[in-house]
Design goal:
This protein is α/β, with parallel strands linked by helices. The chain contains 21 helices and 16 strands. The strands form 4 sheets. An 8-stranded parallel sheet has the order 13-10-7-4-3-16-15-14. The protein has a 4-stranded antiparallel sheet with strand order 9-8-11-12, with helices on one face.
């Protein structure tokens, strides 16, 4: 395409917030195919001015200086839970953590997933971000269970599944679903007074049980919330799903009450997008970008780019409706949270949209109004007295990090990524102050996994390596050597330190950073070599299915957990 023709496309593309080029991490300009730009533009409406929903520059109060734990809730199993960590386990852990001086607990997304069998395991591909996965309900804590006679309790108790080595979501959900069916109220409550969001979520879920989870494949009269859909949904099933969400809210509230004495409390995790065939995409069609999926452009690590298969907000429709749906989402989460982590926080500025029928390489960035997106976020967080953390790892434009710092939104500082341009680990004193610090994340090697190159072996076994295994092993050995060099320079380790001693040294390193919140993961502390999720794999690796190596009762009494709690709590 000629430069003149490309230039003629820039103005109309800019009017819709669509980029015609982007810059790679290596500062190389990449021009986007004009046909792709036009395809993305066709998914948007012309932008119109909308009243500013919040004040240009509002900031959060300074975040308390504290420490805490990062949990994959499903892996926090106890003697009382049914093979998967639940809300009561979260409450028990919060009570223990508070007693040791912890001020925060970060949990994986608790969003509702598609109501199918087999149940999706990834918490980052939700059907709804506005409602909660009832898999996490503690059956024995339900008032209906407590009020039941001994015969009904025995029936429910008999459904409890055996504990498996890996998390068996399907077995757990089948058992809980059967137990919940026995305990659910038989009287159908009037749904007329329900909040529209809850009513529509329950209607979607009831319809999905009959017609399949992808509403785009339903009969045309059912593809939109309205009289036809409401009439087609079985009232008893709608009432059942309303009841589940009400019980989830109550148990989440109990967990938050257990964390009430903490400086921050329980921090929820917000996934970047939603299942395009799921509940939120059905109920929020007026503000969701129809047909677009989000992902990432090609880079050095993913030459084919990434297609996350997720739907997201349409910026033009979101603005035209005053950001009401976005505000409602945040308000609902903050009602049961002391804080919120925003996955891929750069998405408040721009997202890589992939038009229908295209691969991840043939996408374009679509820009949002960051002042509005941040303004609504901060306004709702201030009302709730909550903190906000942005996941700003990887390739992120400087404006993102700078704005987060200026608004008192914490960034993310992860040991594996805190390096200079030469690849050397940065001394802890030079880490950012307005950040939440940790050794790793759910997508990265655990502390022991890093030291033993378990991530390389796992990728090799899964067939997910992009280089020969010998090269990957050598790179992992070089990474270990670079980390050891830093730990020795800081006086935290010696060349003869054992792996267990190095794990403690890594945690001690975090205490020397100025970061406002320090987080430890029980997977790291307890020496679990396997990481929770191995990106680029599906059935080849037990993603999101690896439990903690100890039950909750043993975990909270383990000397290693107590040692790290004491270490973090003694930070000046």
């Amino acid at each position: 395409m000629s430069d003149e023709s490309r230039s003629a496309l820039e103005a109309p593309a800019a009017a819709r917030g669509v980029a015609t080029w982007y810059e790679t991490a290596g500062h190389r300009r990449v021009d986007i195919d004009p046909e792709v730009v036009r395809s993305v533009m066709a998914l948007l409406e012309p932008r119109t001015a909308a009243p500013a929903p919040v004040s240009a520059g509002v900031s959060l109060p300074e975040v308390p200086r504290t420490w805490g734990w990062m949990l994959q809730l499903y892996g926090l199993r106890s003697a009382e839970s049914w093979g998967v960590g639940d809300f009561a386990d979260l409450a028990a852990f919060a009570r223990w953590a508070a007693l040791t001086g912890a001020g925060a607990i970060l949990v994986n997304p608790l969003h509702a997933v598609a109501p199918v069998d087999p149940m999706p395991s990834s918490p980052y591909s939700p059907s709804s971000r506005r409602f909660v996965n009832p898999l996490y309900l503690r059956i024995a804590d339900l008032p209906e269970y407590r009020a039941a006679d001994s015969s009904l309790r025995a029936q429910v108790d008999a459904l409890r599944p055996p504990v498996a080595e890996l998390i068996d979501y399907d077995a757990v959900w089948r058992a809980k679903r059967a137990a919940l069916a026995l305990l659910a109220p038989t009287t159908i409550a009037d749904t007329a007074d329900l909040a529209p969001a809850l009513r529509d979520f329950a209607v979607y879920t009831a319809l999905a049980e009959v017609h399949g989870v992808d509403w785009r494949e339903w009969a045309p009269p059912l593809r939109h919330p309205g009289p036809d859909a409401y009439a087609a949904a079985e009232p008893a099933r709608v009432a059942f799903h309303v009841w589940l969400q009400q019980r989830c809210a109550a148990q989440l509230e109990a967990a938050n009450a257990a964390a009430a004495s903490m400086a921050v409390g329980i921090v929820h995790d917000l996934a970047v997008g939603i299942d395009p065939g799921g509940a939120d995409a059905w109920t929020l069609q007026d503000v969701i970008a129809r047909g677009a999926k989000v992902g990432a452009p090609p880079d050095a690590f993913n030459q084919q780019g990434q297609d996350w298969g997720l739907a997201t907000w349409s910026p033009d429709r979101l603005a035209a409706t005053g950001y009401a749906a976005y505000r409602e989402l945040l308000r609902g989460i903050f009602a049961h949270a002391g804080g919120l982590r925003i996955d891929h926080v750069a998405g408040l500025w721009r997202l890589w949209w992939i038009p229908p029928g295209q691969g991840a390489t043939r996408g374009a960035y679509v820009h949002y109004d960051p002042e509005a997106m941040l303004g609504v976020l901060i306004e709702e967080a201030v009302k709730a007295g909550a903190v906000v953390v942005g996941e700003d790892l990887g390739t992120v434009e400087p404006i993102v990090t700078e704005t987060l710092q200026n608004r008192n939104i914490l960034g993310s500082a992860v040991l594996w990524f805190t390096r200079d341009d030469a690849g050397r680990f940065i001394p802890p004193a030079q880490w950012p102050a307005n950040a939440m610090a940790s050794i790793s994340t759910h997508d990265l090697p655990t502390a022991l996994g890093f030291l033993t190159a378990e991530h390389v072996h796992a990728r090799a076994e899964a067939g997910a390596l992009t280089r020969p295994v010998d090269e990957e092993i050598a790179a992992a050995a070089a990474d270990r050597a670079a980390l050891l060099e830093l730990l020795v320079a800081e006086g935290l380790a010696t060349d003869t330190s054992t792996d267990a001693e190095l794990v403690v040294a890594m945690h001690r390193l975090l205490t020397r950073t100025p970061c406002r919140i320090l987080l430890a993961s029980p997977y790291d502390v307890l020496g679990e070599p396997r990481q929770p999720n191995l990106p680029g794999t599906s059935a080849e690796y037990p993603n999101w299915r690896i439990p903690l190596p100890l039950t909750l009762e043993h975990l909270t009494a383990d000397p290693r957990m107590l040692q790290i709690a004491e270490l973090f709590d003694s930070r000046s």
